[in-house]
Amino acid sequence: MTLKRGLAIYAIATVIATAIAVTWLDRPLALYLHGFADTSWFRFFVRITDLANGVIWYSLAALMMAVALARRWLTPSDMSPIKFSQQIRAWLFMVLAMATSGILLNLIKVMVGRERPRVLFADGSATYTPFSFDIDASSFPSGHTQSICAAMFALAFIFPRLRVVWFTLAAAISTSRVIIGAHYLGDVIGGAFIGIAAVVLWRAWFERDGVSVTLSRAAPITAPSPS
Predict the structure, then answer these.
(1) Second CATH level (architecture) for the domain 3-206
(2) Which of the chain's termini has less CB crowding within 10 Å, N or C?
(3) What are the pLDDT digits (tens) for 47-76?
(4) For the chain, what are the domain ranges?
(5) Measured CA distances, 71 to 74, 90, 214 (Å)
(6) CB atoms inside a 10 Å sphere around CB 154
(7) Which of 97, 44, 115, 112 minimizes the C-alpha distance to 204?
């Protein structure tokens, strides 16, 4: 399956799933989960939800680029120019995937203007106010979900041996947004698509010359042409 076809299928599935959630699932699910606000498992998800904060993952990428730069300067024999370039490319890939998907997401938020579940809990309304900059009208798509999915899926390409960890974190933190009533299910589905699609597209762009963003792989991802 080609990249374009795979993304097209994922986009169609996302539209269908989001439409089903918005039409039939979002409101009753939000009200149902709100009834568990005083439980210990609810408080667990409250504690982990802010791991999606983009500052954490931008800081990680910046730190790792700084470490690569320091190693290149202090121990050039251990950090060859090729290895240094791979390190910088990998973390730049993660930063760009997060940043561009975040910009797109915020544009969609403003255009859609979906009210957050807390408005529903307060007065029973669940409406839309497009082109509003009110924080209560910024539910769709979920920014936390976009951020954590972009970061974790990028890390899954950078360090594939730990992909079970990255995917588990992405799923748990994305789910937390619905459980704690910060977003509707449809918001999370949309946010996940934006973050993951950005990672897939940026990976294809960074690997267009045959060099992988995977740091554990030193060789090109494609065999060189015979001379």
Answers:
(1) Up-down Bundle (1.20)
(2) C
(3) 999 999 999 999 999 999 999 999 999 999
(4) 3-206
(5) 5, 16, 19
(6) 29
(7) 97
